Amino acid sequence: MGKYRVYHSSRFDRELSKFAQDFQKRVDKIEDQLSNDPYTSGPLSVKWFREKRHGRHRIYYLIYQYLEAVIMVAISEKKDQQKVINTVKFLLDFFRKELETLIDKEDFT
After folding, report:
1. What are the structural domains, with CATH classification, of the chain?
2. Residue 11: what pLDDT?
3. I want to staple 80 with a disulfide (CB 3.0 to 4.6 A). Which of 11, 76, 96, 108 is the partner?
4. Which of 72, 78, 73 is CA-nearest to residue 53?
5. DSSP 3-state assignment of 42?
6. Burial of 46 from C-beta contacts in 10 A (0-12 / 13-18 / 19+)
7. Global pTM?
8. What distance in Å separates the CA atoms of residue 51 and residue 73, rounded to the nearest whole number?
9. What gap in Å lies between CA 24 and CA 26, rounded to an integer?
10. Residue 39, CA distances (Å) to 9, 56, 71 in order
């Protein structure tokens, strides 16, 4: 088990459910990588916002070092990359609160 815990936002889960099983399995492998070192890919304007590429798709995630947690927040194709980046930046507070809720639920189970 890695140092970081990896979570999915509700938005990410909705998007992921639309993909084939092989893509979902690839996301599982990406989660394993992120739990060990979430800083493996290049930053998107700031150190804590990054993406992993798989084929023509981008998987976006936020790193919360103080919580030792990563939250996967969106999936897009290259053509929608900037729109998704802007949306994630706009929703940063929402994603932080969602992550804190997920951590609290996990801590109580």
Report:
1. 5-108 (3.30.2310.20)
2. 94
3. 76
4. 78
5. coil
6. exposed
7. 0.93
8. 10
9. 5
10. 19, 21, 13
